[in-house]
Structure formats: structure tokens, C-alpha cells
Amino acid sequence: MADVTTNPAPRIIDGPRGRKPTRALSGRNIMIYGTLIVVALYYLLPLYVMVVTSLKGMPEIRMGNIFAPPVEITFQPWVKAWAEACTGLNCDGLSRGFWNSVQITVPSVFLSIAIASLNGYALANWRFKGANIFFTILIIGAFIPYQVMLYPIVILLREAGLYGSLTGLIIVHTIFGMPILTLLFRNYFSSVPEELFKAARVDGAGFWGIYFRIMLPMSLPIFVVAMILQVTGIWNDFLFGVVYTRPENYPMTVQLNNIVNSVQGVKEYNVNMAATLLTGLVPLIIYFISGKLFVRGIAAGAVKG
């Protein structure tokens, strides 16, 4: 009679399987979180000092404890920084500079993003003769120091009759913003599946049809990245504003410099801090509103090999 073979009983493994859970207070976690806390304090401490100083009166500031919270909160420094502080010959605060900055930033951001998105779209999907040379020139332009181009641009704007005007400054910001934005848009559009582009071509869509119907609806993250980069760069710019405009057209940053570095009268540190916070509010608000899209767009528009 044939031997009947039976399968051996399966081995029973004692205990749970998988990776051993890491301890919450391991040396690695302590090092990571400790470093993050130190870096956060490094950036938050000056901001804290600015806020509490802007809410104090001058008698309290003269007591010398810059880290102490205000005993009596006052918003008079903010009012004076906005509407009463002297920024040269005028004593109307930052309000005039704010509207100048708005008139400079809005068209500059719109024009630079519109042109750069078209450049990136064409370089990624519509290869033309000399495209690589054109792209190389744009990349080189992104790394040329601004200071090298100051005087030649002054001459060009003077000959065009635009020197000292807001229009001339808008053109300068638009041109200097295009190289890096073109690189971002080109890399983003290159990451879009090529099958979508080919299918649209088969269906008869042309250059503008594909751009407006397919590319734009899919490109919100990279447009947010471009907007934040341009708004931050243009709004916080001081060099171009002081070189290419006249006092009546100075942006907010130039007027802030005039308030902080004024040598007349008493040094009002609370007004200076309030003026600094007012100048930086616009980029901060835009970033906090669209921060998640900014991170997504940076990852999607990163440089690819």
C-alpha cells in the first residue's frame, strides 16, 4: 500500500510582523524637531519684536525691554506710518507708495506671467528652429546680475521717454521676470502627458486652442507659483524702484527706506516697525492664501534632466 505523505504543519510565527515602530523621543526625532524649532525661533523672534514694538508708545519703548509685550496697546504708530509719516518732502505716510506699488505690481505680474507661459508652452510643445538657442539665452538672462544692467536700461528708458515713469518700471520688471518664469512653465508643460497634446492635434486643435482649452485648466499650481514669485519680487523690490522712478512714483519700499533712515526729529521706532509690517503684508497674505498650491507647483515645475 502506497505511503501517504502529509504536508508538514505550517510554522506559527510568534509576535507581530513588520517594521519595528520608532520611538517618539528617539535621538533622530529630537535632532530633527530641535533643529526645526531653533530655525523657527530664528525667524519668528524678529517678527515678534516688530509686532510688539509697533503696538507700544515711545515712553514704553524707552524703558529698554524690547521683548516685553505692550502694557498699553496703541495703534497710533500704524496710523502715523500709513497716513502721516514723512517720506521725504511729503508727509502722507506709506499710502501713496502703496498705490504706486499696486500700479506697478499688478500689470507687471500679469504681463510677465502671460508672456512666460506662452514661451514655456511653445518651447515644450511646439519645437521651432532655434528653440534651443532662444531657451539658452533666456537661461543666461536669468543669472545676469541686475546691477550690470542698470545703466544700459537707464539709457534705453531715457531714449524711449519712459524714464521716471511707472510704465518704464513695469517694462523693466516684466523683462527681468521672464527668464526664470519661462523655465518654470517649460518644465511644467513638459511634464503634461504628451498623449493629450497629440490627441488635441488629431482633433484639429491649433496652437491657441490647445493652450486655452487644455494647458491653462491644468496649470493652476504653476501659475500660483509664478504669481507668488513675481508679487514677492516686485513688491519687495527697492533697487529698480529707486533707480527708474521719480519721488512722486516711488514704490512702498523706497518710501519705507525714507521713513526708517530719516535723520530729522525723534527716532520713532514704533512707527518704523509698523511701516515695515505694512510693507510686507501683501506678499505674506498672498502666500498664506495659496501656500498649498505653491508647494505643488514648485514640485511640478522643478528642473528636470
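Above is the first protein from milestone M3; the second protein from the same milestone is given next.
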Amino acid sequence: MDFKGLLAYQKAFSLSMDIFQLSKRFPKEETYSLTDQVRRSSRSVCANIAEAYRKRIYIKNFISKMTDSDAENRETAVWLDFALSCDYLEPQEHAVLYEQTVEIGKLVNYMIQHPEKFGCKEY
């Protein structure tokens, strides 16, 4: 299986694209701060899952990259909180996006706790 078949990747990619679309309406003065940060962190979740999957022959590398993915996911949630507090997102939009970060976090943590189910082998 390719990393694109992983549910965690698919959900993280979808969230990243939702954030991209919604962040287009953030104010211009946020371009190089909040907008860039929330886009970058949400995309990093996907990138780290892809890297982890390619390094899955090495269990410690897999877990390390998945942990990075989890951290980027939490960072994305924080940026979404800022966007809500700055009135760039409606409460309902924030709730939907935030819930997606929670779901992605659960999937990523499952992968961290069960690396053997994703092709990792202890040598």
C-alpha cells in the first residue's frame, strides 16, 4: 500500500485543503503569519506521515516521524484557535476543523502505538 491509502493521510490532506480554502479570506496582514503558519503546519501533518511510511522498516524512525506529525497536528489546532479568536473563522467552522484535528490525532496516535500494523518490524 502507498501512504496515500492511509486513512490518517487522507483525512489530514482533506483538512489541509479545507484550511487552504478558508484561509484565503484571512486578512492580508495575516499573510506572513497566521495564514502561512496554519497552512504550513496542516501540510506538515501529511508530509510527516508520508516520510514515516517510507521509513517504516526502521520502527524508531517511523515512530519519530509520526510523533512529528502529531505535533504538527496539535500546532494546526492552536492556529485554528487563534483564527477563531481573531474572528477569521465562524465558531461552527472552527468546531468542524478542530474536530478533524482531534480525529487525525487519534489515527496518528494509533499508528504510533501499533507500528507493526503498518509494516514496521523490530530487528
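Note on the second protein: The helical segments are 7-23, 31-54, 59-85, 91-113.
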